[in-house]
Write a structure and sequence with these properties.
This protein has 35 helices and two strands. With about 650 residues, it is mainly α. The chain has a two-stranded antiparallel ribbon with strand order 1-2.
Length: about 650
């Protein structure tokens, strides 16, 4: 029960700057006003022979991709199928606009990426990337007219790599097609940031991180390029260096042979990433944001107002468009801070993957056909207690990994990143249009999940001891009850609380001061929560607390779990609750409570409800189905056991 699945590295699929250009915003307003059917208008523009019309259509497509409703309409039309071949259009400006538009669409989610693949974006995309691969001596150009930004052909490559990265992360079809393209070798040489620049090197590294994940077809290639990755593990500098170094560590950790061979190089690189104080960095950037945001916008607006496009050549028009999209100084600063936050997020995910055990795959033995006789054996409380994984007594990690985690103090570093940032910094970020606040949230989620995995993989002492774990549990509880109820953070927070509480089962003295009012906070948390996963965490924690608290509070918990399960619709939540309830009887029969609450009759009624819901929701349980069946079997035994113990108790007390 309560196992933690592997949390594989998932690079954030967001614009590193996160600020739509003013040109895009202006185009969107004009587009909405002038076209009652914008998708049909885009369709016409893309099929036009005029280069400028095609570019305008592609830019409009890029703008519409920020509107969820429009994305649905785009995917249900044939616009993507019409646009995709423009990736190999002879005109580079068209290629660039097409790659940018499709990349924007690809960040809209897995279903959109699947749609892009279904509409055959991969064929022209891989043809385009293969052109760069065949040009063995190709290196990017940095345009002096664009303050040293990537030239047009180089930017096409950058946008295309980002598009490929999103598609490969979202669908196995894209990954299989990439494996067959044999262009992986050419990608690896793009990691040389001194030649290709950080924009390309980082995007390629993010793509390779996805490609290397559980993809044995790629591992031989990576094995042949170890020196390049080891070199990247040693780079130092600003946040872009930090991000590239961390991505290189992630790629090595995704290749089993390399992960085992280079533990002593991967973990020092991750430690260096965590050593950067993100709170200080965020404090510095937020002191700049309110001062510089508005003046820069005004300056850009003035520049755009004076442009005369009447007699422009195609080349001049392309240059003008790219100049208008140039990042401002503050945007570049925000981008670099985003690199740091993403680097630390990836570092947490690497440790999560390194610490995930392989014993969390359930054996799917369908017990639906088991006879009643197989599920009515007497419930043995000692056997039940011993069957529960005793997490706090043993380490499950390879010795080298465990020693690295301890020597570099990763538990403390992760906890530092998992805590909320300062309120004033958070407020400033909330009031701006930047995506840094979301990146901070993603970092916190990854660190909380990593700590949860460490709780499930390390001994109590190696985690810092019961007192330290209890302090984390209390701190998380305060964040959950006193902070904003953000469901994205609430689930990993309660999961970590649940995992940490498992280590405190032998330390009831820490909970001696817990009152009914304290308990009431948790009960209210369950009642108010709309997410089954979080409710399951709460209820599981209540069951653990029931093994630690006084009989008066235990009675409150048992009655609450019974009442909650009778109203709960989600069978997984019921399963977790029942399992927690049975745990409470492992060391104490609570006979008086059983009598006072009419427990025997209520648990029998709950058993019927539980079995009915299993039949109804069987197909939705997926890999959880065997675990639920185990609880069902144990519950049948438990009911018989309670009945037997109740008879003994009644006989002894003459009732």
């Amino acid at each position: 029960m309560g196992k933690t699945k592997k949390n594989k590295i998932r690079p954030a699929k967001v614009n590193p700057i996160g600020i739509p250009s003013l040109r895009d915003l202006e185009n969107e307003d004009e587009f909405n006003m002038e076209n009652s059917n914008p998708i049909e208008a885009i369709r016409d523009q893309l099929q036009c022979s005029n280069v400028e019309e095609k570019i305008n259509g592609l830019q409009a497509l890029a703008v519409l991709s920020s509107n969820k409703n429009k994305v649905v309409n785009i995917c249900s039309s044939d616009v993507i199928r019409i646009a995709a071949p423009l990736l190999v259009e002879p005109n580079n400006a068209v290629r660039n606009a097409c790659a940018g538009a499709l990349r924007n669409l690809s960040v809209c989610g897995v279903e959109v990426c699947e749609n892009l693949v279904d509409q055959d974006v991969l064929t022209p995309l891989l043809v385009l990337l293969n052109e760069y691969a065949k040009e063995a001596n190709w290196v990017p150009e940095f345009d002096e007219k664009l303050t040293g930004q990537l030239g047009l052909k180089s930017d096409i490559f950058l946008q295309s790599v980002n598009l490929l990265w999103n598609l490969c992360e979202s669908t196995s079809v894209a990954l299989e097609n990439f494996n067959q393209s044999h262009i992986l070798e050419s990608f690896i040489r793009c990691l040389d940031y001194k030649v290709f620049g950080f924009d390309i090197a980082i995007s390629v590294a993010q793509c390779l991180l996805v490609i290397s994940e559980e993809n044995p077809n790629s591992w031989n290639v990576f094995n042949n390029h170890v020196p390049e990755f080891i070199c990247l593990l040693n780079i130092e500098g600003d946040h872009s260096h930090t991000f590239l170094r961390t991505l290189a560590a992630g790629i090595l950790s995704n290749v089993p042979a390399l992960a085992a061979a280079y533990v002593n190089k991967i973990f020092p690189a991750l430690s260096a990433t965590f050593d950067v104080n993100h709170r200080t960095v965020l404090g510095d950037i937020t002191s700049t944001l309110p001062l510089q945001q508005q003046p820069n916008q005004t300056e850009l607006e003035v520049k755009m107002d004076v442009v005369d496009v009447g007699e422009e050549t195609d080349e001049a028009a392309s240059l003008r468009r790219r100049k208008q999209d140039l990042p401002t100084d503050i945007e570049i600063q925000v981008k670099n801070v985003g690199y740091l936050l993403e680097a630390q997020k990836v570092a947490a995910e690497i440790i999560t993957n390194q610490c995930a055990t392989d014993d969390d795959e359930w054996i799917d033995n369908d017990a639906d056909d088991a006879s009643d006789n197989e599920s009515v054996h007497d419930y043995d409380s000692n056997s039940k207690a011993n069957s529960t994984t005793n997490l706090q007594n043993t380490d499950k990690l390879p010795v080298e990994v465990l020693e690295a985690i301890k020597s570099f103090g990763f538990v403390e570093k992760l906890w530092h990143k998992a805590k909320p940032i300062q309120d004033n910094v958070s407020q400033i970020l909330r009031e701006t249009s930047y995506t840094l606040l979301n990146k901070v949230k993603s970092l916190r989620v990854s660190c909380l999940l990593c700590l949860q995995n460490l709780c499930n993989s390390m001994s109590t002492e190696d985690l810092g001891g019961p007192t330290a774990i209890y302090a984390v549990w209390l701190d998380l509880g305060q964040q959950v009850f006193q902070g904003p109820q953000d469901l994205i953070l609430l689930e990993p927070s309660t999961s970590l609380m649940r995992a940490s509480l498992e280590h405190l089962k032998k330390s009831p003295e820490l909970f001696a001061q817990m009152s009914e009012n304290d308990l009431e906070l948790m009960l209210n948390g369950v009642n108010k929560c709309t997410m089954p996963e979080i409710r399951a965490n709460w209820l599981r924690m209540l069951g653990t607390l029931g093994c630690l608290l006084s009989e008066r509070l235990v009675k409150v918990i048992i009655e609450f779990i019974l009442d909650t399960c009778s109203k709960e619709q989600d069978v997984w939540t019921i399963s977790e609750s029942i399992d927690a309830l049975m745990d409470m009887f492992s060391d104490n029969d609570w006979n008086q409570i059983v009598v006072e609450l009419n427990f025997h009759e209520r648990i029998k009624a709950l058993e019927k409800v539980f079995k009915s819901k299993i039949r109804q929701q069987k197909r939705e349980l997926n890999e959880r189905y065997p675990a639920v069946l185990t609880v069902r079997t144990n519950l049948s035994r438990f009911v018989k056991y309670v009945e037997s113990e109740l008879k003994k108790f009644s006989s002894t007390n003459g009732t």
